[in-house]
Amino acid sequence: MNRFKNQKNPQKCDSKSKKKKKNVLPGWRYQLHPDWASLTLGVFVCQACSLLHRSIPHITRVKSVHETWDASEVELVAAMGNSAAKAKYEQKVPAFYYRPTHSDCKLLREQWIRAKYERNEFEFIEKQEPYSAGYREGFLWKRGRDNGQFLSRKFALSEREGALKYFNKQDARVPKAVVKIETLNATFQPAKIGNPCGLQITYLKDNSTRNIFVYHSDAKEMVDWFNAIRAARFHYLQVAYPGAGDEELVPKLTRNFMREGFMEKTGPKHTEGFKKRWFTMDDRRLMYFKDPLDAYARGEVFIGSKENSYTVLPGLPPSTQGHHWNHGITIVTPDRKFLFACETEAEQRDWIAAFQRVINRPMRPQEYAALFHHKQSKFNNSKRVGALYGLILLPCYVVLPPTLCFN
Question: Does the keyword Isomerase apply (predicted)?
Fold first, then answer.
């Protein structure tokens, strides 16, 4: 396809040909009018990607389509193109390997480009061993739960044992913690952790979410750990759900949080003062922390569906007491109302939209199980508190559809 006017002479890209380029841009680099191209790789890229390509000048040299091109440059790009480049450089991408989107952090996008064009990881399977061997061991800087200091800790990930372990001492034989792959999640959080390679690892412990914050000074090392976790999760789910295809399993490997940020909240009586807390919405779990880097949540709210009488409303009840931010949110559940307040109207709008997306989605059987365990955990906590005061508490049961069974 001729993308340039009069290819025998130096020229610029014309507007008509730019419209045609949208058909050859792969995946996350898709842009209606790409303004840059790699002269060495023969692909068109968006402006954001062009900046990343500049970081590996020994592999790729970018040029704006608005500059003057000579005939040899035109011929090189015309000979390759995005579709052919994708077939070459992405021919053996593992199903579990994370393909970043335009909204992902710079680390993931840059390492994706380096993995393809610099290290040729998806042309030669042996280069994928760091994250596909089924076992990975190494040292990461881990944030201490109590003192907040980052210290070097040994981590070991084993698909065979179905666990991620970390050790407080280099020569320790007994791990400080054993994290089951079943509930493991990992998401990059460079801004929150304050490091471009910062990774947040979460898992369930006693049906409560536990956070671990780690980083490594080497970007490739950190992304390899991330994809090793995804590989372990992928192989675990293949065994757990033998009839499921890759398209069903891959979205379940890791997940980004739906929304995070500060809001104010009050207690169950709605007479307590509002307190500023950091909120994390992980699918149907709304967790709140005193500090964004806390290891444990101060509390969790399960967000069900509208079929189960969950609703979200803008504003607060007129009877609400205490000083609080001006932009309120009320979540109505079968048990009680939860009151929150946002600092700005834009934050209120974004939080309501996130809540509404979850509430509008029907609950899956495993989510009913999560609700059951959430209720049970709250009851067990109430029993412990009640025992201190000599109270007798009766259990609270969840009404489940008759077809569900948790054997």
Answer: no
